Amino acid sequence: MLKPRSVLIFIILLIIGAALVDLSGYLWPATVDLTRFKIPLRRDLSLHYGLDLQGGLQVSLEADMSGIPEKEKDRALESARAVVERRVDFLGVAEPTIQASRSGNSYRVIVELPGVEDPEQALLLIGQTAQLDFREATGEGENQQFVRTGLTGKDLARSQVDFEQTTSAPQIALQFTSGGAKKFEEITGRNVGKSLAIYLDEVILTAPTVKGKISGGNAVITGQFTLSEAKRLVAQLNAGALPTPIHVLERRQVGATLGAEALKRSVVAGLVGLALVVFFMIGNYGRLGILATMALIIYGIITLAIYKLLPVTLTLSGVAGFLLSVGMAVDANILIFERIKEERHWGKELHEAMELGFGRAWDSIRDANLATLTTVFILFNPFGWSFLVTSGMVRGFALTLGLGVLISLFTGVVVTRTLVRVFYR
User: Fold this and answer.
1) Are 88 and 116 contained in the same domain?
2) The Protein export membrane protein SecD/SecF C-terminal domain covers which part of the protein (predicted)?
3) Are residues 261 and 249 in the same domain?
4) Residues in contact with 287: Cβ distance below 8 Å, sequence separation at least 6, in sequence order
5) Residues of 276-313 as b/e, b for ≥16 C-beta within 10 angstroms?
6) Is 138 in contact with 144 (CB distance < 8 Å)?
7) Element (DSSP H or E) covering residue 205
C-alpha cells in the first residue's frame, strides 16, 4: 500500500502538469511542438468552443430517399454524410460536427460549423448535389436534344481552378481517370463538329463544339464563373457527388456576440454555484470542508487539462454536464464525511473514524457513479445505434458528465483521503 506522502507527491506533480496545460494559450503559446527535438508530437492545447458558444451555423439536411432501395438507404445516408464532411473540409472550419441521423422515414445529415464567416457560401457548398455528366447532341435545329454519354463526375480524378489565358476568366480544369479518359476520347471522336454539353445537377453549364478527338484525359469547363463559384464547384467535384438529392430542412445561425454572452453567463453561473457549494461544505464540515474545497479546486484543474488534451469541444450542454459533475464530486465527500460523523458518534477515535468512513462510504459512491456512467453511455451512444439519441447537444452533455464523474472519483476519494491523512496525521 502506498504511503500518504508518496500519494501526495504524485498528486502535486499531477496538479503541476495539469496547471501547465491549463495555462497554455494564456502565459505561453498554446501549440506544443516537440518536432524540433525529433519527437513526432505537435498539439494545439487551445480550448475549443462549440457553435452555441463561439457562434456559427447549424444546418439540418434531409436526404430524398425516394429513388433508393430500402436496403441501400442506410448506406446512402452514410455516403451522403461522408461527402458533406469532405466538402466541409474545404471550408477550413475548425472542429466541425457532421452527423447522420435517421428517425422513421426521415434521413438527415446534421452539420455544425462553428465560427463560419459566410453561411450562404457554406450552404451552397454542402447542400448542392453536384452530379456532373456529359451529354452529346442528337438531331439538329429545334429538334436538337442532349442525351447522356455515360461520362460523369465519377470518372474524374481531380479538378482545379484555372484561368483563361487571354481574358484571365476563371475556368475549371478537369482530369479524368484512365477509364474516364478513354470514354472522353471516344465521345469526342464521334462528335467532331457537334456540341458536347456539360451538365451539373440537370443544369447546362456549357455546350462547346468539339473540334477534334481529345486524348490525354483533360478537359476544361468555361462559363460565366466568378472565382468563388469556380472554387465552390471544384470543391464539390473533388469531394464527390451526393448519392441522393438533399435539401435544407432547418438552419440556425448563432452570432459570435450571442455565443460570447452565453459563455459569460455560464461562467458566472458556475462561479456562483461553486461559491455556494464551498460555503455549504465549510459551514457544515469545518476543516474537512476546507480539504474538500481544495479537492474540488484540484478537480477543476485536472478537468480543464483533460478538456484541452483530448480535446473536448465545449458547448452549453457540455458546460451543464461539467457543472452537474461538480455537484457529484461534492456528493462523494458528503457521503464520506457523514459516515465519519457516524463513526465518531459511535465512539471511534478520529483516525479510526476517518479510515472507516472512507472505506464504508466507498460502496455507495461506487454504485451511484456506476449508475451515472451507465446513463452517460446510453446518452453518448458511442456505437451510433439508430434506436438511441444521436444529438450533438446530448452527446456533449454526456461526454463532459462522464469525464467529470471519472475525475471526481479520483479527487473525491483519493485526493480528499490523502489530504485528510496528511493534515490529520
Assistant:
1) yes
2) 248-422
3) no
4) 423
5) ebbeebbeebeebbebbbebbebbbbbbbbbbbeeebb
6) yes
7) strand 203-206
- For residue 94, name the pLDDT band (cuts at 50, 70, 90): low
Cβ proximity of 323 and 37 under 8 Å: no
The candidate with the shortest Cα–Cα distance to 354, out of 337, 329, 332, 366, is: 337
CA distance 400 to 422: 31
Strands 48-49 and 145-152: unpaired
- For residue 51, give the nearest of 321, 314, 381 by alpha carbon: 314
Q: Please answer whether residues 174 and 161 qualify as being in contact, where contact means their C-beta atoms are separated by less than 8 angstroms.
A: no
Sheet containing strand 132-138, strands side by side: 145-152, 132-138, 196-200, 203-206
The CATH code of the domain that includes 138 is 3.30.1360.200
Question: How far is 390 from 214, CA to CA, in rounded Å?
Answer: 49
Cβ neighbours for 113, distance < 8 A, ≥ 6 positions apart: 51, 56, 57, 58, 59, 88, 91, 93, 96, 119, 122
- Average pLDDT for residues 219-227, to the nearest whole number? 84
DSSP string, 242-286: -SS-EEEEEEEEE-HHHHHHHHHHHHHHHHHHHHHHHHHHHHHHT
pLDDT in tens, 408-419: 999 988 999 999
pTM of the predicted model as reported, rounded to 2 decimal places? 0.71
| Domain that residue 41 falls in | 4-48+255-423
Q: What CATH number is attached to the domain comprising 80?
A: 3.30.70.3400
On the question of pLDDT at 186 being above 90, the answer is yes
C-alpha–C-alpha distance, residues 51 and 97, integer Å: 9
For position 11, which CATH number holds?
A: 1.20.1640.10
Q: Can you tell me which residue has the cell 457537334? A: 194
Instruction: Write out the three cell numbers for 65.
Output: 430517399
Q: What is each CA distance from 6 to 1, 11, 333, 421, in whole angstroms?
A: 10, 9, 22, 12
